[in-house]
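Hello forum,

I keep getting stuck at the same step: I have a sequence, I want structure tokens, and every attempt I make locally crashes halfway through. Rather than fight my setup again tonight, could one of you with a working pipeline run this one for me? It's a single chain of 187 residues.
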Amino acid sequence: MLPAANAALPEVAVPQLLDPQAELTLSEPKGADTQNDLDEAAVEPAVKPAGDLVSMVAQLRGPDAGSRELECLATGIYFEAKSEPLAGQLAVGKVIANRADRGGRFPSTYCGVLFQRGQFSFVHGRSLPSVPHSSKQWQTAVAIAKIVDQDLKESAVGDALFFHARYVSPGWRMKRVASIGNHIFYR
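Reply #2:
Ran it on my machine without issues. Output:
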């Protein structure tokens, strides 16, 4: 056996892949003819999630919601429905989105909907409770929030604006549209 200091390593030819004098530029996406196309390409995900709800959640699950509004939507889903089936989480997210889209009686943003006085019991004042971003339940809520925000999957609740847990009976005089998991949905 030879000492390491005396061992000779074989020479391996490495091709020069970059011209040291060349100017580096980013290539444009195929079919991007205008600046508007480039802006949309930067915002749109490269591949839209596909398949059933379980597959879409698996494709979109992650700790980072990506924006303050999506963080609010995911937080609402997390605190109202984290232990519910995916269809129930989607339904809760859809109610929050429906309220934001409805206008008038409701604020026009997900965060505004959550912070509307007396609407969500987990909200106290003007801050959201902390969430363990490494938990699978949070990452699922983030995925559901993205699905709701991009309107990638229909929900059985349709245009519902209200929901409550099965164990309470508020006596609402509204049209009941669905019952999913532990929640009953109304419009």
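The two ends are 82 Å apart (CA to CA). If your local run keeps crashing, start a new thread with the error log.
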